[in-house]
Design goal:
By secondary structure, the protein is mainly alpha-helical. The protein contains 12 helices and no strands. It binds fe (ii) ion (FE2). Fe (ii) ion binds at residues 47, 51, 77-78, 152.
Length: 219
């Protein structure tokens, strides 16, 4: 393939498939797609940028080969909120389905579909079968899934780094006492707290505090 490799961001027709991107190319493409889809949604865009930066700062919690994937998933985790992507109305599945259709790697799409304990909410919303299309155990448990949930659940809806308890309480406040989130909070809450605890434990290990640049677009 010809063309300037360093300038490749979101894949275009004739370019390398998104699923073939790795490392900095993958992160840059993810950041650019997130910007295209979310930059006009506020404060979703501010939250997304902060989650990507948080994931980059916490990338030492996952294996070196998984660090770019973690940061790319952080950029893309909320793209399902983009109105153009809305199908079932549950943003993790709408985002994951879109990425799969667009040729991004199945694991990246599954990380987006499962982020932050989406499986508990999907069950309450009767969307378990739709989520089953993203059946990859690494997106559900383990360091990668934990670190993505940690990044999302320690950043507020407006982009500030916050304690996980504050984040969980804010979600319940915003979604309301009868919401699907509230109805599965007894399951999702402990999962999120444990994912955060495990990630912070991994980051405290020797060599765990690697800080990567988020690789995102600059204003
Ligand atoms: Fe998020």
């Amino acid at each position: 393939m010809s063309g300037n490799h360093a300038l490749r961001t979101v894949p275009r027709p004739g370019d390398a498939p998104a699923g073939d991107l790795t490392g900095d190319d993958l992160v840059a493409a993810a950041a650019r797609l997130a910007r295209e889809l979310l930059q006009d949604l506020h404060p979703r865009w501010e939250h997304t940028r902060a989650v990507a930066a948080r994931a980059a700062a916490g990338a030492g919690a996952v294996a070196p080969d998984d660090r770019a994937l973690l940061v790319a998933a952080a950029w893309l985790h909320d793209v399902g909120y983009a109105p153009a992507l809305r199908v079932c109305g549950f943003h993790p599945i709408d985002g994951g389905d879109h990425l799969r259709r667009q040729g991004w790697s199945p694991l990246l799409a599954a990380l987006v579909a499962h982020h932050s304990g989406a499986r508990f909410v999907a069950r309450v919303r009767d969307l378990g079968a739709a989520l089953a299309a993203h059946d990859d155990p690494r997106a559900v448990q383990g360091p990668l899934a934990d670190a993505l949930t940690w990044a999302d659940q320690t950043v507020s809806a407006t982009g500030e780094v916050v304690d996980v308890e504050e984040r969980l309480a804010d979600v319940l406040r915003r979604h309301g006492p009868d919401s699907p989130n509230a109805r599965c909070h007894h399951l999702r809450g402990p999962y999120v707290r444990e994912a955060v605890r495990r990630t912070e434990e991994r980051l405290r290990r020797p060599g765990g505090s690697v800080v990567l640049p988020p690789g995102g677009p600059r204003d």
